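ok so for the tutorial part 2 we go from a plain amino acid sequence to predicted structure tokens. step 1 is just haveing the sequence, like this:
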Amino acid sequence: MYKWIIVGGGVQGCSVASRLLIQKKVTTEELLIIDPHAEPLEMWQRTTSKIGMQYLRSPVVHHLDADPYSLKKFAKLHDFAQPFKGKYG
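step 2 — the prediction. this is what the tokens look like for a chain of 89 residues:
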């Protein structure tokens, strides 16, 4: 039996599932994600590739990684100090 059923395997659904698993509020056997697509985030990946969006532009702690500060760590590791990649202004 499932403790949690999440409708939608997009960014929000995956974020909720990730948080539940990280906080150990549920196991993978107790969690079900219902989505019409074959893979999680499939629609997001298809849409962003059509518009040429190569990077997820989010505040530093709003992303799918288990560690909320992984983007900050990545930026420091790669000596990336600018708020945007590419041309802006």
